[in-house]
Amino acid sequence: MKPVVLITGSSRGIGAAVALLAAQAGWAVAVNYVRQADKAQALVDQIKAQGGQAVALQADIGVASDIARLFADVDRLFANIGPLRGLVNNAGIVDRVERVDEMSFERVERMMRINVVSAFMCSQAAVLRMSTRHGGEGGSIVNVGSAASRLGGAGQYVDYAASKGAIDSFTIGLSKEVAAERVRVNCVRPGIIDTDIHASGGLPNRVRDVGGQMPMGRVGMAQEVAQAVVWFLSEHSSYCSGSILDVSGAR
Hints:
This protein has about 250 residues and is α/β, with parallel strands linked by helices. It has one domain (about 5-245): 3-Layer(aba) Sandwich (Rossmann fold). Helix content is about 45%, strand content about 15%.
């Protein structure tokens, strides 16, 4: 039997790096994706080629019914492998560069639904399976936040920064609720990381443009964030809950 971890938005970037490292650490991995089935399956194939266990599961975590289906699929497909003991709330979006006085209601609502509400509802589903209060054996929830929560995102995407500020508060609050139920809740806050999320926000050259301005003279890599996430998943961080760890290169 292996512990199972569900990683939302894990077909690419930080999520994919977490999936690979978690599999190497002995987790069976549920790889969640929305549209990029080919990338998700390629990641699953890579994990299996290395001797791990993984399944690709399609679901839009911005849709309540998809979240319910996602967790039901995890229950069904991993029933003979092991219990759900880990959740990484990694899925998230940015939008194009805009000031607050230019943002539409629809943009801000979508940002909060995908970046914040989904983390609440996925965590709820995980707690119902992990918590000793509900008959579970414990587990670990890791939220992927952002250093933007303390920087503010002014002139670019204050809505994104605010959504990640909500994740900070959510991490602290949920950790206190379930601390006595053998469920730990922590947060990793990346800085500027070399992934394609910047292109989706309309800044495809951001990594190249700002790397030399960073305190360490470079941006971070997805694998460096993954190391922190998998540490929080593991028993090596057994007395950490409600912790927020910056992986931002002193930014």
